[in-house]
């Protein structure tokens, strides 16, 4: 019998809403929120009683927990890396605990479920440990996510890859904000981009992205940068990719155009459908949304700078 993995995330109670939104990027189901902040009122509202078990009353009211349950074919290492990096970016203090699965197992067992997959019209994503793969005439993108987010299996990554393929032109310069494994920038380079910059606040992700660029023979055209892109990146780009979380996309919307050429396309993914209208409203203050796709509960947007009045 295959074992599911539980990820238990402890945060300050005041951060539980943002923490759960970010957790939904990892998996849009199987999430349980444990929050005792308003215990007495919640019991009255739901159960219509005022007698509460002593054990419940003793619960810590300052802490809250997000519980995520991953199927056996989902990489806990990738999920933990993504969560930790995004919580750091949002300034959310957190502790992450893995249950039901030994570390040596969750680091490797999921690999048997990660198989070559076709994405878009041109790319075949191939796990680095596969040999002699029939790419069906597609370009092979060899990837080992290690402890970084980005295998191509999640809807958010696939949507971003497919949308980038549609808008990218030969020789374009690419900026990938929150690059994770580097999959988006590397895919762009393999399909005609001239250069790509991948930036992430997580040093492990940056190292993994650089290794994957080398694995695909594009390291001479791929720059992996650790830190805030607004402080570390220079120049303007033809395509800007942001496969991150809703709050981060909202935050970036005002300033990201400074890194875009006049006719550049800004592609955003990782937006859970419950935040779609909020994100679109904020993005629309600075950009004209030219395309949107909703798949599996996740929204991907393509936008250009607002037309001159």
Count of distinct structural domains: 2
Summarize the helix and strand pattern as letters.
EHEHHEHEHEEEHEHEHEHEHEHEE
Task: Based on the coordinates given, report the CATH architecture of the largest domain.
Answer: 3-Layer(aba) Sandwich
Strand order of the largest sheet: 10-9-8-11-12-14-13
The rough form would be described as globular
Counting DSSP E segments of at least 2 residues, the number of strands comes to 14
The percentage helix is 25-40%
Q: In DSSP terms, counting alpha (H) and pi (I) runs of 4 or more, how many helices?
A: 11
Let me know the largest β-sheet. 7 strands, mixed
Which fold name corresponds to the CATH topology of the largest domain? Rossmann fold
Fold topology:
Layout: E1 5-12, H1 16-26, E2 31-35, H2 39-47, H3 54-57, E3 63-70, H4 76-90, E4 94-99, H5 103-106, E5 117-119, E6 123-127, E7 139-143, H6 155-167, E8 173-177, H7 183-190, E9 195-200, H8 203-215, E10 222-226, H9 229-232, E11 237-243, H10 246-252, E12 260-272, H11 276-283, E13 287-295, E14 298-305
Parallel strand pairs: 6-7, 8-9, 8-11, 9-10, 11-12
Antiparallel strand pairs: 1-3, 1-4, 2-3, 5-6, 12-14, 13-14
Helix pairs in contact: 1-4, 10-11
